[in-house]
Amino acid sequence: MTRNQFWQTAFRRMYLLVTCCLLAGLIGARPVLAEDANANDSDVTVLTGGTLIDVTSGETMADAVVIIRGERVEAVGPAGTLAMPANATIIPMEGRWLVPGLMNMHVHLGLKLPGAAGAALVDETDVEEVLRMAANARRSLESGVTTLRLIGEDHGTDFALKKAIDSGQITGPRIETAGEVIVPTGGHGSLEADGPYALAAAAREQIKHGATWIKIAISGGISDTHGAISAAPMTDEEMKTLIEVAHRNNVKVTAHNGSSPAAKQSLAFGIDGFEHGYHLDDEVLREMKRQGTWLVPTIVVTQPGAMEFYRKIGSPEWYLQRVAETGEDHWKTLQNAIALKVNIALGTDQFPFEPNSGTTATIREAELYVKAGMTPLEAVQSATVEPARMMGRDDIGKIEAGYYADIVALPANPLEDISALRSIDFVMKGGEIVRDDRGMSAR
Predict the structure, then answer these.
(1) Is residue 325 classed as helix, strand or coil in its secondary structure?
(2) What is the CATH number that goes with domain 44-101+401-442?
């Protein structure tokens, strides 16, 4: 056989093989019948009769229909404008306001603070800690927080927890995480490194394990027994190199910070956000506004409502004194940041579900934003669309087609009174109902 005959035979055989495969596919295929479509509707849930809040515009839709297929919203519209899937589960929401699931952007599910409660955990193993974190994640979700950002945990426990939630092994909120807090020796965090390249290596290590943020500490903290909150312990080269390395990996950097000098230093190198901001001056806030830098205020931790929490964990007197000394400046920073329209995303530095002033820490944080100058809509946005924007997520934070069906319901309008969020009685994450106080899903 000549070479040409060989290739002609080979091509004929290939043609016959492909043709047979195509014919087999056509013979095995059949049109999608009505009963097939109806069968697929068994994975559909429809919320009916509630008032849906557009958290971007503040507009509301009365008698709304929200069609959810699987994990995502398929369609939204007024009653009578959408075809109702035949085999869908219908959940009546009359008298309820529908809001996107809340987000909390400063959480430590393995939180340990000075005091009796922290001392009791001194010998906690990583396995014990991640189990405790899992319980706290479940309680966070049940309180209405469907997404949170872990902003400093121990030894990779946050990565393990996120994998378990994402794979459906346990129930909890969506998680973005920063791994361990990276600090120079003696800083406000657990992962110590000194010099630009050691700090860069620490950042790369967290990113390798799955960190979607890097957190550094560029000033002292309230819970420190040494050092000043107003300090700025990192050198320019250390900070510049670490931020550059994170950004080269498309990972944002946020900093524990209460110091204006440290803020000015890090803003020069393009840092993405600050946590707390206890003592930030107006010059810093104006530069944050100019650059689009984010502030996660955690205002609840320095205001009177947190004393219930501190008493419960047996906080020592020196810690309570540092809280008291910080609270006034912290409040002024928040008021000025709101007035200057700095980007703000809600975060608490307490467990999202932690009791605070008769509600949860998450809801109290939003209430304090209104007291400090936000409108109720802006406060709701700080817990929904603004965190989504900060994280670069376009699949959470709204109740719209294509978005994850992360939804909370309540019997009053939070745009009229932010404290309506205290009455959340229904929580859905990704189309799965995790809380239904009225039992509407069982009807």
Answers:
(1) helix
(2) 2.30.40.10
